[in-house]
Write a structure and sequence with these properties.
25% of the residues lie in helices and 15% in strands. It has 195 residues and is an alpha+beta fold. This is UBC core domain-containing protein.
């Protein structure tokens, strides 16, 4: 625990905590509750990007479904625009991905959620929609990215990637050794292994 004189006996608030506090100071709670994702089109309020990302962050912190898909903000505490996110997918049963843990990087640019996030696997994977040298999920090969809609979320995207792993054309593809990663330099095709 980090000790601070400004926060005696506890660690200072995280970036997400500070953003949540600021959000509640700006938007009255009843209005905030009415600005939910996926509401009916006739009474839809266009939720600003940062509010939407805060809602996704809260949902990601609570855990999703059976726990085989998760996401949260990257560890970069200086990311006040909430651009960098990490995701994890545990491979589905009865396929070549079973039990494997895949790490991903998601980048929500200034146009998110109107435009999809950029997605890149950190863990090596052989999947039809993933570039074999960089780990980048190719938007034209994944229907969720190709046909992106504002109401889609990072949770939806990760769940669809998991379903793609179990699809007939991907389920039996030979996979790289576990514990290998795409190079952090997206222009390089080198492989690193964890120690």
């Amino acid at each position: 625990m980090v000790k601070s004189t400004a926060w005696p006996g506890r660690s200072p608030p995280t970036l997400a905590d500070r953003a949540r506090i600021a959000l509640h100071c700006i938007v009255p709670v009843p209005l905030l509750r009415s600005m939910t994702m996926g509401s009916a089109a006739s009474d839809t309020v266009v939720v600003p990007r940062n509010f939407r990302l805060l809602e996704e962050l809260e949902r990601g912190e609570k855990g999703i479904g059976d726990g085989s898909v998760s996401y949260g903000m990257d560890d970069d505490g200086d990311d006040i625009f909430m651009r960098s996110w990490t995701g994890t997918i545990i491979g589905p049963l009865n396929c070549a991905h079973e039990g494997r843990i895949y790490q991903l990087k998601l980048v929500c640019d200034k146009d998110y959620p109107d435009k999809p996030p950029a997605v890149r696997f950190h863990s090596r994977i052989n999947l039809a929609c993933v570039h074999p040298d960089t780990g980048v999920v190719e938007a034209d090969k994944l229907p969720t990215l190709r046909e992106w809609r504002r109401e889609y979320t990072m949770e939806h995207l990760l769940t669809q990637l998991k379903k793609e792993m179990a699809a007939p054309h991907n389920r039996r593809l030979p996979q790289p050794p576990e514990g290998t990663f795409f190079s952090s330099d997206s222009n390089s095709s080198s492989t690193t292994t964890s120690s």
